[in-house]
């Protein structure tokens, strides 16, 4: 029978939580100080600890260091104030989750059910490592480079916790694949994984899409609608391009993260949520904060466990492996096996891949189609990889002079518009060159069009019909 230790100097709070735990069929003990807690742990090592941070003889964070020698023990922070700094510090030190007092019975039941479930990694870690060495992939993530091995290590450390993950990296580096891998290796794998691109939903609809709405709450709301938080219940919600979320909605998202509750649009009923959140952005998060695109308090709440993905150009040793993987996929799908000539792989490895893994995958698909026989050689590759290896007749890229002290938002605007003009108003190439998604580029151009000096943005928007 699982054993639980409740550590809280408030005896009433400790006894109430102990009674709730006992109803879940577990044995439970209580402690009112660090000293009492250490004595209880020595008498009977617990499977689960509910830990209050403010104790008479010290900070509960000290106990987290002690529990590192007990890998089978999970620690859940219980706080009466939802202190952002201390909660994040506890999660980074190894706490599996945190609850806010008073603890609701339903919320406790879900947490215990989730934490007591076996973590898939306990059974699959050796298999994943063997496939990495033999085949070159860790789940759906491919690559043997040191930077990718670091990502795999981070995924393995965080997957079985309920900690919020913040994935950063250029467009096309595989942020959603990382989120999916975290979900697939977690205790939530049997529940839904939902991915939401915050930049692809209209600002007028994004709140109702994420939190849901009641019938009649606004024009066109002819029925009740469950949002992503409800549909992902028990599972993982991936919020991509989080910096494109409207600031007023970021405030509501922060409240969900701190309290585990939300309300549908047009409702006064508080809903409990049990969702693991993974957020991502292709911007530098601190630049987004300075530019007013991301609330600073939300950034620190999301950035509990950061995972940074390197661009493909910084792990060039993975390019042949990735290219072969994509070629094997399309060969299987199309029913005809083709292979790369050595010179073609060399050309692919020489290219800088501004669109990263996504661009490489698309390039391999085009090369497969262009190959007239089973061998993919230099002539099958479109122009850019060839030009990257030195065969280029393009004029030199123009430079842009920016004065020291120019606001980051203004620098971003000038670089974006200058790149768009240099590339002949080609949106896809511009987005790839800037390392952002096409949707993000359109959003930026709409913003620039509203500025007094947004002539170029207005002009290009009209030319492209947007």
Task: Summarize, please.
Residues 141-369 form the Sigma-54 factor interaction domain. Keywords: ATP-binding, DNA-binding, Nucleotide-binding, Phosphoprotein, Transcription, Transcription regulation. By secondary structure, the protein is of the alpha/beta class.
Uncertain stretches: 386-395, 454-466
Please state the CA-atom Rg, rounded to the nearest Å. Answer: 26 Å
Estimate the global geometry from the Cα principal axes.
Answer: globular
Quaternary structure state of the chains depicted: single chain
* Total number of domains: 4
| Structural classification | alpha/beta
Head-to-tail CA distance between termini: 62 Å
Modified residues (4-aspartylphosphate): 52
Domain Sigma-54 factor interaction: 141-369
InterPro entries: AAA+_ATPase, AAA_lid_NorR, CheY-like_superfamily, Homeodomain-like_sf, HTH_Fis, P-loop_NTPase, Sig_transdc_resp-reg_receiver, Sigma_54_int
Protein name: Sigma-54 dependent transcriptional regulator
Structural summary, described in words:
The protein is α/β, with parallel strands linked by helices and 466 residues long. It has four domains: 3-116, Rossmann fold, CATH 3.40.50.2300; 121-308, P-loop containing nucleotide triphosphate hydrolases (Rossmann fold, 3-Layer(aba) Sandwich), CATH 3.40.50; 315-388, Helicase, Ruva Protein, domain 3 (Orthogonal Bundle); 408-464, Arc Repressor Mutant, subunit A (Orthogonal Bundle), CATH 1.10.10. Helix content is 46%, strand content 14%. The protein has 21 helices and 18 strands. It has helices at 11-22, 34-43, 61-67, 84-92, 105-116, 121-135, 146-158, 175-184, 206-211, 228-231, 247-259, 285-290, 296-302, 319-334, 342-350, 356-370, 383-388, 408-422, 427-434, 438-449, 455-464, and strands spanning 3-7, 27-31, 48-51, 54-55, 58-59, 74-79, 97-100, 137-138, 141-142, 165-168, 193-197, 236-240, 261-262, 271-272, 276-281, 305-308, 339-340, 375-376. The strands form six sheets. It has a five-stranded parallel sheet with strand order 2-1-3-6-7, with helices on both faces. A five-stranded parallel sheet has the order 11-12-15-10-16. A two-stranded antiparallel sheet has the order 4-5. A hairpin with a 2-residue loop joins strand 8 and strand 9. Helix 14 crosses helix 16 (356-370), helix 19 (427-434) packs across helix 20 (438-449) and helix 20 packs across helix 21 (455-464). The longest helix has 16 residues, at 319-334. The protein is globular and about 75 Å long. The N and C termini lie far apart (62 Å).
């Amino acid at each position: 029978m699982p054993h639980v230790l409740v550590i809280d100097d408030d005896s009433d709070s400790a006894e109430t939580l102990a009674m709730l735990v006992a109803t879940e069929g577990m044995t439970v003990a209580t402690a009112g100080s660090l000293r009492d807690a250490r004595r209880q742990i020595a008498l009977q090592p617990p499977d689960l600890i509910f830990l209050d941070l403010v104790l008479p003889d010290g900070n509960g964070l000290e106990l987290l260091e002690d529990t590192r020698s007990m890998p089978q023990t999970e620690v859940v922070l219980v706080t009466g104030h939802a202190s952002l700094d201390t909660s994040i510090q506890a999660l980074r030190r190894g706490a599996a989750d945190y609850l806010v007092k008073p603890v609701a019975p339903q919320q406790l039941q879900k947490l215990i059910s989730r934490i007591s479930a076996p973590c898939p990694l306990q059974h699959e870690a050796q298999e994943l490592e063997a496939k990495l060495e033999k085949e070159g992939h860790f789940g759906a993530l491919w690559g043997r480079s040191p930077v990718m091995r670091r990502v795999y290590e981070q995924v393995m450390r965080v997957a079985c916790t309920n900690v919020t993950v913040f994935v950063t990296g250029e467009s096309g580096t595989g942020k959603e694949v990382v989120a999916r891998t975290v979900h697939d290796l977690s205790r939530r794998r049997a529940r839904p994984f939902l991915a939401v691109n915050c930049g692809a939903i209209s600002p007028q609809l994004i709140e109702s899409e994420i939190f849901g709405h009641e019938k009649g709450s606004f024009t066109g709301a002819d029925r009740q609608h469950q949002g992503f938080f409800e549909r992902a219940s028990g599972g993982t919600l991936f919020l991509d391009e989080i910096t494109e979320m409207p600031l007023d909605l970021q405030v509501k998202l922060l409240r969900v993260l701190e309290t585990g509750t939300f309300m549908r649009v047009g409702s006064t009923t508080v809903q409990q949520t049990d969702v693991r959140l993974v957020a991502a952005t292709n911007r530098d998060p601190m630049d987004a904060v300075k530019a007013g695109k991301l609330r600073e308090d939300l950034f620190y709440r999301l950035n509990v466990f950061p995972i940074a993905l390197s661009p493909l150009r910084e792990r060039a040793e993975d390019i042949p492996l990735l290219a072969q993987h994509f070629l094997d996929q399309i060969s299987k799908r199309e029913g005809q096996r083709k292979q790369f000539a050595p010179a073609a792989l060399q050309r692919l490895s020489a290219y800088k891949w501004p669109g990263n893994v996504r661009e490489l995958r698309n390039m391999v698909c085009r090369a497969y189609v262009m190959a007239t026989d089973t061998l993919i050689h230099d002539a099958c590759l479109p122009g850019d990889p060839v030009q990257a290896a030195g065969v280029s007749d393009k004029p030199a890229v123009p430079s842009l002079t920016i004065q020291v002290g120019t606001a980051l938002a203004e620098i971003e605007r000038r670089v974006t518009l200058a790149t768009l003009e240099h590339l002949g108003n080609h949106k896809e190439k511009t987005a790839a060159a800037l390392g952002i998604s096409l949707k993000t580029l359109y959003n930026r151009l709409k913003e620039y069009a509203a500025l007094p000096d947004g002539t170029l943005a207005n002009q290009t928007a009209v030319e492209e019909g947007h």
